Amino acid sequence: MNFVHFMLQNDVLELTWEHLWLVGISTLLALLVGLPLGIMIARWPRWNKPVLAGANIIQTIPSLALFGFLLPVPWLGARVERLAILALTLYALLPVIRNTYTGIRGVDPAVVEAGRGMGMTDRQLLFRVELPLALSVILSGVRVAVVISVGLATIAAAIGAGGLGEFIFRGLAMVNNQLILAGAVPAAILALSADLSLGWLERRLRPR
Amino acid sequence: MPGGAGITNAARSIISALRRVILSPARRKFAYSRVLCYILPILLAIVLLASCAPSHSDRIVVGSKNFTESLILGELIAQQIERTTNLKVERRFYLAGSYICHQAVLAGRIDIYPEYTGTALSAIVKQKPEGGRAEVYQRVKDEYEKRLGLTLGPSFGFNDTFAMEIRGDDARRLGIKTLSQAAAYAPQWRAGFGYEFMERPDGFAGLAATYGLHFAATPRVMDLGLLARALHDRQIDLAAGNTTDGLIAALDFFVLEDDRHYFPPYEAVPVVRQAALQLHPEVARALAGLEGKISDEEMRQLNYAVDGQHRDARDVVADFLTKKIPAK
Amino acid sequence: MEPAGSGIAIEFRDVSYTLPSGQRLLSDLNLQVRRGETLVLLGRSGSGKTTTLKLVNRLLLPSSGEVRVNGAPTDVIQLRRSIGYVIQDVGLFPHYTVERNIALVPTIEGWSEERIRARVQELLRVVGLEPQMASRYPRELSGGQRQRVGVARALAADPPILLMDEPFGALDPLTRDELQREFLDLQQRLRKTVVFVTHDLREALRLGSSIALMEAGRLVTVLPPENFLHSDDPWAAAYVKAFGVGSYDAAERSAP
């Protein structure tokens, strides 16, 4: 059967939407939590070790194992989407936190000194100077987070969260290569386009 | 998923309003935030659109688990809907188990899938699966309708529960039909069970206690796929399988009757989303048309056609439907 | 604005500064800066001159003693906005145009757009840059141009006090000379109170109305430039010798 026809028949679009939903919302949450955390440890480096170590530990846990840990948890396990989104968010945290931290610390100290000496408050420094100059690096962290999430969301299908991974697992059970590809190819395309477009944005924002 | 077009439009207008506010002259000095404000709205847009995008309000999605019997039932449901309604049916088969199917139907990714009452009662409603067929069915139905927004269609008619199988010629020779009768011969037999049946407290342990089964030696634990062969080749004399195993007829096995009703009922039923039924009432009629249409023996034949004869499930189901429920 | 020469603008009383590690950067500093004068803090690396400077706008806080800036707001943020600050690396914001960089303090103080634009153009003239520079970015500018912008930025809100930390140190000799001359010219006109840090004796002699020599965290002596060259003070003499400065030409100080 013609591959494209096959993909349309199996409504690849629907699973792609499910996939995007998982990736989109978890990246959003990772940003909402990770950006402030990264800013905090840049301001108070005392917390740098525990926060980064914590995020690092989470990253080290194999994804399927994390899914397994969270399944029995009452509220989370009841609806697998919650579980998957939480896990994806956790995995996206480290790149976001770490890059926010290095981005802000990487701003030219002369710039920060000049700003502070001229009478900018900490908040003004943060929003008008440090964040804009760190944006490229932060975006690079977001890029990594998104690419990781696209891949992990594929595995989340194993516990029933839907998304493109479902094609892969169903295809494996059915020994149907076309079905496997119907999941693998769009997922790869998703990851690549996210990587390329965010990479382009990153380069545009680099402070010259 | 909530209805598509309205929320999509709302999302779009929210996003353009956001953009206008953020890019207004007063905030021009925040030039960099223009970028952040492209990323955030894009993420929000993706999230909003994906949460209400292609809602399949025009079709029915049928799921199934990843073993033959579930596949056959799923195909049966799908074809029945196709031939008795105008709805398009999408198949999402080979989902790996009850949890996954349950999550999918809760989230609305599938609308119907075939489940077993005993499994639903123990794994999802989380109660002990005991009682008669009707009682179990009703308990599951009530819980599903009350708490989960789901309901059960009518039973397909067969009970796929644990089967204690012996060779057909032994059954005829000894003239035994029930497990109570078989208990007398147990000390002369070797038994073979799957790992799970041996380990579960509601497996072999309870069975032996209920019927007073004492085998000469400890039952052999074997891979499920090898049990049938072992029984046929006289390496074991009694095996644990399922009542609807395709090989039962083919290899001339006999299923001993569970006269003390030790095994809970596992009636095959369709699990349906109430929302889908409200949207498409014709589905209920389609499912009603399947009520009681498959006996234990017929299910065995269907299983055998796919597993043993390697025929395509689609064809097997199509033939069955034509014979059983002639098209009007 | 108060006429030059009247009153003390900045005062250090028994000021010491010690690092958390215990290292003493400043000991018992007693110093007064008169309004309208250009006080040069002269000394070699590690003498404590930059530390002294930063105590004025409270980038550093004294471990003991008191630093008073007379007539200045008590709130540290407002204090800093009323003091111009120019550093060697300039520290222009790379993502701002020249205009926005200069307009930094006026912007955060809430000046109107027209007032800001007019002020930026005025300052560009004052520091000798062309009007079209306003829309350029720091990366497009030469070192000398950048520092001019730095000075313009420091002057934007018309602060009575300027702190300058080796502002011309990173520039080539020709540009440095140019900027020094322009600084003298500016000072003649504006009469700001300036505290200027340098390790270059020639620069000190040229720009300062008073030279405070520092060594190892202590104030050694305070002398007007005319007296510095012939001073008996051993440190001053050592400095003069090291620089091989022969004579002091008073004419160099006068504006063209």
Structure overview:
The complex is a heterotrimer of chains A (about 210), B (about 325) and C (about 260). With about 210 residues, chain A is an all-alpha fold. Chain A is built from ten helices and no strands. In chain A, helix 3 (about 50-60) crosses helix 6, helix 6 (about 80-105) runs antiparallel to helix 8 (about 120-155) and helix 7 packs across helix 8 (about 120-155). Chain B is an alpha/beta fold and about 325 residues long. Chain B is about 50% helix and about 15% strand. Chain B is built from 16 helices and ten strands. Chain B has helices at about 5-20, 35-50, 70-85, 100-105, 115-125, 135-150, 170-175, 180, 195-200, 200-210, 225-230, 245-250, 275-280, 280-290, 295-305, 315-325, and strands at about 60-65, 90-95, 110-115, 150, 160-165, 190-195, 220, 240, 255, 270-275. In chain B, the strands form three sheets. A five-stranded mixed β-sheet of chain B has the order 7-6-8-5-9. Chain B has a three-stranded antiparallel β-sheet with strand order 3-10-4. In chain B, strands 1-2 form a two-stranded parallel sheet. In chain B, helix 3 links the parallel strand 1 (about 60-65) and strand 2. In chain B, helix 3 packs across helix 16. The longest helix of chain B has 20 residues, at about 35-50. Chain B is elongated. The two termini of chain B are about 35 Å apart. With about 260 residues, chain C is an alpha/beta fold. The longest helix of chain C has 18 residues, at about 175-190. The relative contact order of chain C is 0.17. Chain C has helices at about 50-55, 75-80, 100, 105-110, 115-125, 145-155, 175-190, 200-205, 225-230, 235-245; strands at about 10-20, 25-35, 40-45, 65-70, 85, 160-165, 195-200, 210-215, 220-225. In chain C, the strands form two sheets. Chain C has a six-stranded mixed β-sheet, sandwiched between helices. In chain C, helix 5 (about 115-125) packs across helix 6 (about 145-155). The chains are: A mainly alpha (about 210), B alpha/beta (about 325), C alpha/beta (about 260). The interface of A and C includes residues 111, 114, 117 and 120 of A.
